[in-house]
Design a protein that fits this description.
Layout (H helix, E strand, L loop, with lengths): L2 H44 L2 H26 L7 H35 L5 H34 L5 H17 L1 H16 L7 E4 L4 E7 L3 E6 L4 E5 H5 L3 E3 L7 E9 L1 H17 L10 E6 L10 E9 L5 H17 L7 E3 L1
Antiparallel strand pairs: 1-2, 1-5, 2-3, 3-4, 6-8, 6-9, 7-8
Length: 347
């Protein structure tokens, strides 16, 4: 072995270390600067606070991460004792992994916050950030922390296969045990972002229940029924069923009262029904209330009569039921007060 040649090569490598460090710092600052400029343009186009926070977080952390990785690479050229070289390389690797984990968690939190901020309703946006942002941050911290621990343990020569298998089996068991709960949480997140209805909207479910949405929670949605009872529906059911929202596209709602009358009372019922509907204080003038013959019995005859429907619009869906009941009662009383009142059947 040519010992003088090795010593000379080692000395040359030592002399090049300062140049490598300078090149490393210059490259890290240049790369981070280019990345920061791209992020600045993107954040200016987005015009959101989350975009600015993403720029500041990513730029500083990326610059430091590049420096740590470069120092780890440059340390291989230093004439250090083997133990010191291993210790320095391990310390730089651990610092790089921890910084990358912190950067990943921070970027995930900013991304989730920005996605939750897409909700146009300030109340829904605040509720989503209050309920789902801490949960997402906790899950991200646990996941990134476990990955970082596995990478660090593997770097120092520890067998992590059993740990990975145990984590995989544990995650599968937890997922199966909490399948319905996780499904309701994901469905609740979808309802807050998609906003098919909001608290205060009057809705009718496919099962027939109607009421006002009181609250959209992580696991369930609470609906105050017309009977002043509270209906609690799992979010997964609401996300996979048909829901009629009386508040959209406009808060107006249509009401309808049907009566089956004889042909002798049909004309009078049409005129009286429209008159009484227009006299209700909650009924809108436009579009005007109307009364029509809605259906004829099969094989209709003069004795069979007809079904008359009185239709009207009100300003909000919450009063539809009350107006229908009042109109049905008044119309029936007026018709029963007439000579042919026996030919009336309310529906």
């Amino acid at each position: 072995m040519n010992v003088p040649l090795l010593v000379e090569l080692r000395g040359a490598a030592v002399r090049t270390v300062p140049l490598l460090l300078l090149a490393l710092l210059a490259g890290a600052w240049l790369g981070a600067g280019i990345f920061a400029r791209l992020l600045r343009r993107w954040s200016a186009a987005r015009g959101s606070a989350e975009a600015g926070a993403l720029e500041r977080t990513a730029t500083g952390s990326l610059r430091l991460l590049l420096v740590l990785l470069g120092l780890d690479w440059a340390s291989t050229f230093l004439p250090l004792p083997p133990r010191l070289e291993v210790a320095l390389s391990g310390a730089l690797y651990v610092a790089s992994i921890l910084l990358a984990a912190r950067l990943c968690m921070r970027l995930t939190a900013i991304a989730v916050q920005g996605y939750l901020g897409r909700a146009a309703d300030p109340a829904a946006r605040e509720r989503a950030q209050k309920e789902y942002l801490p949960l997402a941050s906790t899950i991200t911290t646990l996941a990134v922390g476990m990955v970082a621990a596995i990478l660090i343990a593997h770097h120092f020569g520890h067998d992590v296969s059993s740990l990975v298998a145990a984590l995989g089996i544990g995650s599968l068991a937890i997922g199966l045990a909490a399948q319905q709960t996780l499904g309701n949480m994901i469905a609740g997140f979808t309802l807050l972002i998609d906003r098919p209805f909001r608290p205060g909207d009057r809705v009718r479910l496919a099962t027939g229940e109607a009421g006002v949405v009181a609250d959209i929670g992580i696991r369930s949605t609470r609906i105050l029924l017309d009977e002043d009872n509270l209906l609690i529906v799992p979010n997964a059911e609401l996300a996979n069923t048909r829901v009629v929202n009386y508040a959209y596209p406009t808060p107006t709602a249509r009401g309808e009262v049907r009566l089956r009358v004889t042909w002798a009372l049909a004309e009078r019922t049409l005129a009286l029904g429209a008159e009484l509907a227009r006299a209700q204080p909650e009924v809108l003038a436009s579009p005007p209330a109307e009364a029509v013959v809605a259906a004829l019995p099969a094989g209709a005859s003069a004795a069979a009569g007809a079904e008359v429907a009185v239709r009207f619009f009100v300003g909000e869906g919450a009063v539809v039921t009350a107006v229908e009941e009042r109109l049905r009662l008044e119309l029936t009383q007026r018709l029963l007060a007439g000579r042919d009142g026996a030919g009336v059947a309310a529906e």
